[in-house]
Design brief:
By secondary structure, this protein is of the alpha/beta class. It is built from 17 helices and nine strands.
């Protein structure tokens, strides 16, 4: 069993003697900065001057500066910009301002594990990876609850890298729920595989295949949308609350029987073998090399796939049906112009 840590295992004074620079005020960055500030930590935010996030951080009462300024002023530097932006920002803005004894932190291990960022040996390198989107990290902190997280240490010249990372997790609110120890390798590879095979790639293709199967058989797209997409949240909520057994307890016997007998016809041995090949691509670095090259050449394939996905029937029908549901949070539809 992996080591687990809670509030009793951390000492916030290890962080209160440091300035903490949050590099990027986006999804995770805003939550980290605000939670740490509310925990009594001296927080700096690094953003691009004049950009919307710079203004948002200022409006929240946080000191905002450029990345080089923040890295020079802080003893703990937390990289919370997008994975593909990190190497350039690190080499240009952070590395020249790293000094022995400083701490470099991450919320995801991609760039360290795949060698896109190679810190000097005299700085601590650690990770706190909350298992929730940034807005949820902030919401649960304000409710006094907190989200679970992972902690990992890549370099520990100070001998205090783990203890300082746990102090950071305490200030973030994650130790209320609990923090599980891992490695940069394990976090990165399991995260990429989970996104590709289950959480994003697997789920979206399953939804699309089910929707298209019903529509091609003559069923109304609206009915197919409800059955293959809309109701998925009900099932996922039950699974999150109590696991697969609780979901099966909560649905009808008919649904449960269909689960046991038909699920394996969708996730066949061939699908499981493909999952193993996908995991091998992650472990070998093949996926990382592909994604790095995609970004190096301007994301042409990625942007084309994004654009094509927005215009599929499933998405068009969904936009119409969501307009009928006042109980849903109103969000701007991705890729759809404002009315």
């Amino acid at each position: 069993m992996a080591n687990r840590y809670y509030e009793k295992d951390a000492d916030l004074t290890l962080l209160r003697t440091q300035k903490v620079a949050i590099i990027g005020y986006g999804s995770q960055g805003h939550a980290h900065a605000l939670n740490l500030r509310d925990s009594g930590i001296d927080v700096l935010v690094a953003e691009l001057p004049g950009c919307p996030n710079w203004n948002k951080a200022q409006a929240a009462g946080l000191p905002v500066m450029t990345a080089p300024e923040a890295a020079q002023a802080a003893g703990v530097i937390v990289m919370l910009v997008a994975d593909m932006q990190q190497p350039l920002i690190y080499s240009r803005d952070i590395a020249p301002n790293l000094a022995p004894g400083k701490t470099l932190m991450f919320a995801h291990g991609f760039n360290i594990h795949f060698g896109q960022i190679v810190p000097p040996a005299d700085v601590d390198v650690s990770m706190i990876a909350p298992k929730a989107p940034g807005h949820r990290v902030r919401e649960l902190f304000t409710e006094g609850v907190g989200v679970p997280a992972l902690v990992a240490v890549h370099q520990n010249p100070s001998g205090q890298a783990l203890q300082r990372a746990l102090a950071y997790a305490l200030a973030l609110g994650c130790l209320k729920a609990g923090v599980i120890e891992t490695t940069f390798k394990e976090e990165t590879e399991s995260d990429l595989f989970g996104e590709q095979a289950v959480l994003c790639g697997g789920v979206t293709e399953l939804i699309r295949a089910g929707f298209e199967t019903l529509v091609e058989a003559g069923y109304a797209p609206e009915i197919a949308y409800f059955e293959c997409l809309h109701e998925l949240k009900l099932i996922v909520d039950l699974i999150q609350e109590g696991g697969l057994s609780y979901m099966r307890f909560s649905v009808s016997d008919t649904a449960e029987y269909g689960d046991y007998t038909r699920g394996p016809r969708v996730i066949t041995p061939a699908v499981r073998e493909e999952m193993k090949r996908m995991l091998a691509d992650v472990q070998s670095g093949q996926f990382a090399r592909e994604w790095i090259e995609e970004n190096r050449t301007g994301q042409k394939n990625f942007l084309a796939m994004r654009e094509a996905s927005r215009d599929q029937l499933l998405e068009r029908v969904g936009r119409e049906l969501r307009a009928m549901m006042p109980f849903l949070k109103k969000r701007k539809e991705a890729g759809v112009p404002e009315a």
